[in-house]
Amino acid sequence: MDPDRVLEGLDPEQRDAARSVRGPVCILAGAGTGKTRAITHRIAYAVASGVVTEHQVLAVTFTTRAAGEMRGRLRDLGAPRVQARTFHAAALRQLSYFWPQVVGGPEPTLIDSKLQVVGRAAHSCAIQLDRTGLRDLASEIEWAKVTQVRPSDYEKAVVKAGRTAPMAAHEVARVYEAYEEMRRDRNLLDFESLLELTAAMITEHPAVAQRVRDQYRYFVVDEFQDVNPLQKLLLDAWLGDRDDVCVVGDPSQTIYSFAGATPSFLTRFSAGYPHATVVRLVRDYRSTPQVVRVANGALRHARGPAAEHRIELTAQRPDGPDPSFSEYEDEPAEATSVARKIAALIDSGTSAREIAVLFRTNSQSAAYEQALADNGVPFTVRGATRFFERPEIKQAVHTLRGARHGNENEPLATLVRHILTPLGLTEAAPEGREARERWESLAALAQLAEDVAAERPGATMGDFAAELDARVATEHAPEFEGVTLASLHAAKGLEWDAVFLVGLTEGMLPIIYAESDEQVEEERRLFYVGVTRAREYLALSWALARSPGGRKSRKPSRFLDGLRPASPALASDRSERRRQGKVVRCRICGNSLTEAAERKLTRCLDCPADYDEELLERLKAWRSETAREQNVPAFVIFTDATLRAVAEHV
Ligand code: ATP
Ligand code: MG
């Protein structure tokens, strides 16, 4: 592709970044400013202008989905063979490749979760824990490994890091040591050891280093604010003494410091590479001005090192709907209302694929799964077992490969459906969570066959099998035509037209165990990540009680302060009425009218009746001006007293 064509669709700063093809480059910018877009174009530009070949590039992303999206964009830009992978996937490939010649013997088995081995290790130390306790302990061991703290140094390291260990530090250290021993004895590899071992293989074996460095000459790392010391170690091993590395990130989106990541690798990048090109982007291309206002407001009170680098986002897109703030009596009511709103959005033409429900903890997912199912809305849960690892998918891929010919006259999509039907792909989704998940996976494969057939008319079963092989190799899961349910952590880097941020109560966001200022700040950044996933439609909600009739002891999240209307009950009514097409606003304060709508009133009962048209116009102008200045949504309610005071002056 002509290099100049690759630069089309970039703004001047993004172009600067894309054109800086050599040497260290750092892009520091807020959410939705086109960082990922800029680096993707930068790679394509470097390839198109002959600076590197596609095979010499290694692009590292945070999730397999992000890697898949980047590969898709690179394909469109004429660089389909560039490797875009997660740190883990890249490391696994290198380790498997070099294992026979460097280490020899049976390859270790990669474990997705530590829980089982940690459980056995705790048992061997005579420590009994419930599942939550085990999970906390596994996370703690993960933190220690990521920050390269050995079991013998653990006790000192927790004190130094100011961390609260999940149990007595000497006990954690004992279990940690037992865990490592068991893991090695059984030839198991967790994610941390995978990265550490790969880095060691490169640094300790000059021949391996030579091979790896000959192959990869050009590195790009997205979401660099959440890089942890082990990932940095591996990146340094890849680089050696070279400096063709481009990193991008947003310190305000650091959401993994609890797990040992640190934004200082990003913010201090220039200290390590004083000649680095540093690019800052401020234009937000993703979200409407209404969403951007909430995003900027969400960080207004942010504190700590990450906040020092913050730059306010400037919206580029045209106006969209006001974000909604809704309060509910209880969680099932919240889930039901969200599901109904989603059904209405889909009815009015929004694709289900373009809608997401985001929550703080995976345990919040079930209520939404149920409510969406009750409303006949298809959905998919992110962050569950990796797609190609799911048993039903392994079986389906095997069967499809075995099928590779069939009735030649039958269209590919129909053929694939026929093959998948006996495996559980019924016409409609079945009841029950497990059956439904299985069905969704198979439906995603059927959808992939349709996509392949649409892209390449006349595609055969052989073409489909080849597509599957390529996707299995790169862990590129197909998209499912359904609403995404995801935790805020799993949502980073992604975007949807409509985003529902649910469960926004104290105790959930910030999560109950976020006690220190640093922890609360990380929760605030999670909130920011959630808000900035929305392109157009943003709905924020919370419930006062857990279950119907329960004690209404929950409070709205502190992160909503200054963003939400003073009277949330009205807001919830308002969105409900808007859904039903019944919303009427007070002509004076701009707030929605509830019962008043039924009585055909055009002002709140609280607002003065004696204002003339001209004064009303001036009040309206004042209100939008103030809202803009204070960065609050325009429908924030102003009290009668404020209005009267203002009316004296405007
Ligand atoms: P995040 O911090 O959430 O990862 P980001 O900075 O990586 O965000 P991108 O995902 O690259 O942002 O871009 C956000 C959206 O804006 C995408 O839909 C992208 O296609 C679009 N976009 C980026 N730059 C431009 C541009 N110059 N013109 C038009 N659209 C753009
Ligand atoms: Mg991005």
Automatic annotation (TrEMBL):
Its EC number is 5.6.2.4. Its cofactor is Mg(2+). Coiled coil: none annotated. Residues 289-536 form the UvrD-like helicase C-terminal domain. CDD domains: DEXQc_UvrD, SF1_C_UvrD. InterPro entries: DExx_box_DNA_helicase_dom_sf (IPR013986), DNA_helicase_UvrD-like_C (IPR014017), DNA_helicase_UvrD/REP (IPR000212), HRDC-like_sf (IPR010997), HRDC_dom (IPR002121), HRDC_dom_sf (IPR044876), P-loop_NTPase (IPR027417), UvrD-like_ATP-bd (IPR014016). The keyword DNA-binding applies. Belongs to the helicase family. UvrD subfamily. Residues 8-288 form the UvrD-like helicase ATP-binding domain. GO terms for molecular function: 3'-5' DNA helicase activity; ATP binding; DNA binding; hydrolase activity. It is an enzyme of class 5 (isomerase). GO terms for cellular component: cytosol; DNA helicase complex. This is DNA 3'-5' helicase. SMART domains: HRDC.
